[in-house]
Write a structure and sequence with these properties.
- The complex is a heterodimer of chains A (110) and B (155).
- By secondary structure, chain A is mainly α.
- Chain A contains five helices and two strands.
- Chain B is globular, with a radius of gyration of 18 Å.
- Classes of the chains: A mainly alpha (110), B alpha+beta (155).
- Chains A and B meet through α1, α2 and α5 of A and β1, α1, β8 and α3 of B.
């Protein structure tokens, strides 16, 4: 699975999206992130590992608090993919539009 | 006509063509047509490198060549559904991305084509899982909108 696939998979889970939403307001420790959820610390840690692996969050190595930080580029990459796919289809369909005009004009003049 | 992108890992793209539906469908499935438009701007798709076998399980392959530097990009997808002249569904073998093309006859020789692309990873491909995945992404679109509107603390 490439990083973009991993990003979309990570974002498909509601708990992980809630974690991302929380981190968008500022860095937080595992304990702070676990508080709103009916979930054990190991359960939250598992979600954080998924988010960390695909580059959506990072954790500083200092002290035992290891606050989590949202990596905005990860979200931007997901948005970029959509923009790129949109551009390709727009240009492709501009050309298809021209091609359809050409072949219909040819057919009409025959 | 082209609605804004749902910021969710999904792409929906719509275009209306002044041509009958059968012809538009043929353009999307025949190499002699595809070679005229498949590569985006600045990219050619030579007809000898296009292979289309429009039936479920059939392959759709193309090599696209960058006009500027000659670099090549190979696309390989497998058809999941071919319903002429209404619908094409294929899945990219490298990325797992699934593309649904829907052709709607608007009457008066006008045809609407809607492209729906979703980056659906391997484990999510079962229909029931996919349903949940897309629904989750729809909800995520709301989140992403809220996040984008909020303050960024230094990135």
């Amino acid at each position: 699975m490439n990083q973009l696939d991993a990003t979309f998979t990570a974002l498909a889970d509601p708990t992980r999206r809630a974690i991302i939403a929380r981190l968008a307001t500022g860095d937080a420790t595992v304990n702070e992130l676990a508080a709103p959820f009916d979930m054990t610390l190991p359960g939250i840690s598992k979600h954080l590992k998924v988010l960390e692996r695909c580059g959506l969050i990072s954790r500083t190595r200092r002290a035992q608090f290891r606050p989590c930080h949202l990596e905005w580029q990860g979200l931007d990459r997901a948005a970029d993919w959509i923009e790129e796919a949109r551009r390709v289809w727009a240009e492709r369909f501009d050309q298809l539009d021209q091609h359809l005009r050409d072949i219909q004009r040819e057919a009409a003049s025959e | 006509m082209n609605e804004p992108a749902p910021p969710s890992g999904e792409l929906i793209f719509t275009r209306v063509f002044e041509a009958p539906r059968e012809l538009v469908f043929a353009c999307m499935t025949k190499p002699e047509h595809l070679t005229h438009f498949w590569g985006p701007a600045g990219v050619s798709t030579p007809i000898e490198h296009i292979r289309v076998d429009p039936r479920p399980g059939g392959v759709f392959e193309a090599v696209m060549v960058n006009d500027a530097d000659g670099s090549q990009y190979r696309m390989r997808v497998i058809f999941d559904e071919v319903t002429e002249p209404e619908r094409l569904i294929w899945t990219d073998q490298d990325t797992g991305m699934r593309t649904t093309s829907t052709f709607t006859d608007l009457g008066g020789s006008r045809t609407e084509v809607q492209i729906h692309q979703a980056n659906v990873p391997e484990p999510m491909r079962r229909p029931e899982a996919q349903q949940g995945f897309l629904t989750s992404l729809d909800r995520f679109a709301v989140y992403l909108g809220a996040l984008a509107a909020g303050p960024r603390d230094g990135g």
